[in-house]
Amino acid sequence: AMYHFIFVPLTLGLSFLMAVMESVYVMTGRMVWRKATLFWATLFAINFAMGVATGIVMEFQFGMNWSYYSHYVGDIFGAPLAIEGLMAFFLEATFIGLFFFGWDRLKPVGHLAVTWLVALGANFSALWILIANGWMQNPVGATFNPDTMRMELTNFTDVIFNPVAQAKFVHTVSAGYVSGAVFVLAISALFLLQRRHRDVAIRSMVVAASFGLAAALSVVVLGDESGYETTAHQKMKLAAMEDMYETQQAPASFTLFAIPTGDGQQFAVRIPWVFGLIATRSFDQPVIGINDLVSAAETRISNGIIAYKALQQIRSNPDDQIARTTFAQTQQDLGYALLLKQYPDGVENATSDDITKAAQSTIPDVWTLFWTFRIMVGVGFFYIAFFAFWFWKASTRRLESSRFWLWVALWSLPLPWLAIESGWLVAELGRQPWVVEGVLPTFYAASGLNVWDLAISLTFYVLVYTVLLAIMVWLMVRAIRHGPSEQSVLDLNEDMPAPVGAAKLEPAE
């Protein structure tokens, strides 16, 4: 999943930047903007192909490595994935063909519409994928059916408008826009350092700086919304991100730096009140710590045992109304009882020690969460300053005034991916031990494959992906070395005839 996610953000970001640049071309009629659009579209296409290759395999992985997951929650999880394929992927794939082969066959406004549909298709794809993932974080609109032994969809509207899914979507696509803007800015800076393709580089940097600043601000603002939803639905993830074992009374402070030890912190540097604002948007509400959440998990496990026993009685006698009533009252904790499946005594014969160990297993990897969250946040704030600086330089027409800052722009290229992969780790590792929060443990969702089956298949796919990644990088480097095509530009020093209906505007440097 993380390998696939290397390619998704650049697709999201470049698609909109292409659409913006072509919009300027249609309005002004200057061929330099068409030249810029085609160049970035070439890099977009290379990245898009790699994203498709890695994404298709993941669809099959659900049945191969996660067979019980597919059986248990496939009715809900499969619906947004199917819609993603039918609505978003087909839309995007179809209009990509029209984009590349329709330049001389469509009117300028028609081709511009195609480009915007490519961008919208890419974002629709992300929407449905993140609706599916958001349901795993906050399973709404579904209930367990004791007769079919599966989770079943009860309200698809709740799944679509799941607040966790919506917060994840806007935060994730904003991060993709930042990645695209950084990519365009970095490659344009390289062109200026090499003193070539100045016409495209200058204009691309202006668009990237403006678009990137708006995107970077959006990432932080929408990330705050994601943190608030985490407080409401995934309190353990939030406490682990802060390495907070004891409940913090209001106003809770944010740990800027610390050394997590497993039962507390050393050398902690805290900012007063900030964590209370992030988590509760207030100064008068406490933030629950890991120890109290573990105690709550013990209670839910004990209640889940009751639900599990009632479920077994229903399976033995479907007409047992007392068992059905008991199950209906306790089924919200059935998933917690399934945590006991990893111990020899099982669920019905679980001891107090088993319950304690199962409750302790609800604590995710605190050390990794603590640092990946701070890497993500730190890079996010860096890019606000980064794009604000380049927006100022673009506004004052000083993009080429310092080679040092051009080098900074170039070497900042990997940072968005560091932040994005860190954020993905926070989202997925922070949910552990659940594959579906509070419903299905990860170990219970996996297929019954041995270690070697998994190791061989995973190694094979990683090797194939790495070969494809090397080919992708080689193709991109080759395209960048070649630069924007000169064939479509007659004379960049003269105004070109504007498309029919286009406004005649003088471009700025």
Question: What's a quick, concise take on this entry?
Answer:
Helices cover 68% and strands 5% of the residues. It has helices at residues 8-28, 31-64, 67-101, 108-137, 156-160, 163-193, 198-233, 235-241, 274-280, 290-316, 321-330, 334-338, 352-360, 366-395, 403-411, 415-429, 442-445, 451-482, and strands at residues 142-145, 150-153, 254-260, 265-271, 434-436, 440-441.
Walk me through this protein's architecture.
The protein is mainly alpha-helical. The chain has 18 helices and six strands. The strands form three sheets. A two-stranded antiparallel sheet has the order 1-2. A two-stranded antiparallel ribbon has the order 3-4. Strand 5 and strand 6 (440-441) form a beta hairpin. Helix 4 (108-137) packs across helix 6 (163-193). The longest helix is centred in the middle third of the chain and has 36 residues, at 198-233. It is globular, with a radius of gyration of 26 Å.
Task: Give the radius of gyration.
Answer: 26 Å
Helix % is: 55-70%
Strand content: 5-15%
Write the element-wise H/E pattern from the N-terminal end onward: HHHHEEHHHHEEHHHHHHHHEEHH
Query: How would you describe the shape?
Result: globular
Look at the structure and give the mean pLDDT.
87
The low-confidence parts are 486-509
Q: Summarize the main sheet.
A: 2 strands, antiparallel
Helical/strand content category? mainly alpha
Secondary structure: number of strands? 6
Query: Treating each run of at least 4 consecutive H or I residues as one helix, how many helices?
Result: 18
Instruction: Give the termini distance in whole angstroms.
Output: 41 Å
Please state how the strands of the largest beta sheet are arranged side by side: 1-2
